[in-house]
Amino acid sequence: MNEPVRKRGRPRALNRDVGLGVASRLFWEHGYEGTSIANLTEAMGVTPPSLYAAFGSKEELYRQALDYNIEHETKRRAEALQGPMSAYDALAFYLYDVAEGVSNPDKPRGCMVSTAVLQHARENEAVAREVAARRDASIRFMKARFDRAVGEGELPTETDTDSLARFYSAVVQGMSAQACDGACTVTLKRLVDLALRAWPGNHTDRKAM
């Protein structure tokens, strides 16, 4: 007798938020070029067609994973800069939080955005531009807070807020790179202590958090 034909089960449905969380961690840990579709589907427990149906392409998945990472890892920093605390205190919170975040032993080292896709293959130029745009947005966001500080008298009127924002963004990128090389939280917070001494405006003395 012929055995009855077994019907194939439906492919596992992909929960987008769960999928983005998995993808974000993989991209964070291994980078865009170091993370394959096979890595992603295996970690998510889905087939390539399911992944493509949900996100369209690896490149689009990476874009959404970047947004997911920014929302979950940097939201409190953005809120600090937008909030009522002084510009100096907000900046200090921001930098100390970065120092803790990029060296957290429970997460991949470094920052997914700050030092991502700096060196890349030619075919990934669009992805590199995507990450660079987010870094630029972060600089402009910080500059806006410093512009506000000028208007509120916390910074001198002649302050070059663009260069100041780029300086502190460079500190963030440097901490990310050093964390990838193994720098611990204590070491990075000492770096923040030094960086805050360059603040050209009013502030109250503050010890490392």
Essential attributes:
single chain; 209 residues; mainly alpha; 63% helix; 0% strand; elongated
Question: In terms of topology, how is this protein built?
Answer:
Elements lengths: L15 H15 L6 H8 L3 H8 L2 H25 L4 H16 L22 H27 L9 H20 L4 H12 L13
Helix pairs in contact: 1-2, 1-4, 4-5, 4-6, 5-7, 5-8, 6-7, 7-8
Kindly describe this structure:
The radius of gyration is 21 Å and the shape is elongated. The longest helix has 27 residues. Helices cover 63% and strands 0% of the residues. The protein has 209 residues and is mainly alpha-helical. Helix 4 runs antiparallel to helix 5.
Q: Globular, elongated, flat, extended or rod-shaped: what is the shape? A: elongated
Percent helix range? 55-70%
Mean pLDDT, to the nearest integer, reads: 89
Amino-to-carboxy terminus distance: 75 Å
Series of H and E elements? HHHHHHHH
Number of helices: 8
Oligomer: single chain
Q: Please state roughly what percent of the residues sit in beta strands, choosing from under 5%, 5-15%, 15-25%, 25-35%, 35-45% or over 45%.
A: under 5%
The stretches of 5 or more residues where confidence is low (pLDDT under 50) are: none
User: What does the radius of gyration come to?
Assistant: 21 Å
The number of distinct β-strands equals: 0
Structural class: mainly alpha
Main sheet: strands, sense, barrel: none
